Amino acid sequence: MQTPEQKDVQQEPTRKLNTQMLGKLLVVAVMMFGFGYALIPVYKKICEITGINTLTPMNATAEDVANTQVDKSRTITIEFDGNAQGPWRFRPTVASMQVHPGEMAQVVYEVVNTQSRPIDAQAIPSYAPQQAGAHFKKLECFCFKQQTLGPNEAKQMPVVFYIDPALPKDVRTITLSYTFFEVAGPAKKSS
């Protein structure tokens, strides 16, 4: 049987190796953190040199970052219409606006539930002339999903859009019309 002193003597090299390994692991962890931290300025410098993934400078003007897809030589009049098929008021906040093809624009529609009960509703768009529908690009629209209106609730719902520059040159006016209708009908009372 070994005495406690003999066990300590045998374990001493193992402790020394464990301590060395811990030191090496700590050095590696610190180096990995430093490398990750240094990647940010290195990445920015590489992007700056190669011209890839560059961000807009803080002091850039609107002309410096103008959308080159906007056709400033043409102006399209967009007319807005809202039709309600149900117990609410539904209308656009503006009757019309002028946009250049490729230019981002926004219009807001207002809806008011005039009932004392919640209603689920959906808006369906239509376009005139019909060929304009393929060139009317919506990025955000309340028509993408059903809307729930609480009792006597009023909402303002935006439509963010642009007109594709490929719109035929003879189209100078587009009418965007929404029909807003109740989806499930009135809630039935259980007996």
Automatic annotation (TrEMBL):
<keyword id="KW-0186">Copper</keyword>
<keyword id="KW-0735">Signal-anchor</keyword>
<comment type="function">
    <text>Exerts its effect at some terminal stage of cytochrome c oxidase synthesis, probably by being involved in the insertion of the copper B into subunit I.</text>
</comment>
<keyword id="KW-1133">Transmembrane helix</keyword>
<dbReference type="InterPro" id="IPR023471">
    <property type="entry name" value="CtaG/Cox11_dom_sf"/>
</dbReference>
<keyword id="KW-0472">Membrane</keyword>
<dbReference type="InterPro" id="IPR007533">
    <property type="entry name" value="Cyt_c_oxidase_assmbl_CtaG"/>
</dbReference>
<dbReference type="GO" id="GO:0005886">
    <property type="term" value="C:plasma membrane"/>
</dbReference>
<dbReference type="GO" id="GO:0005507">
    <property type="term" value="F:copper ion binding"/>
</dbReference>
<dbReference type="Pfam" id="PF04442">
    <property type="entry name" value="CtaG_Cox11"/>
</dbReference>
<keyword id="KW-0812">Transmembrane</keyword>
<comment type="similarity">
    <text>Belongs to the COX11/CtaG family.</text>
</comment>
<protein>
    <recommendedName>
        <fullName>Cytochrome c oxidase assembly protein CtaG</fullName>
    </recommendedName>
</protein>
<feature type="transmembrane region" description="Helical">
    <location>
        <begin position="21"/>
        <end position="40"/>
    </location>
</feature>
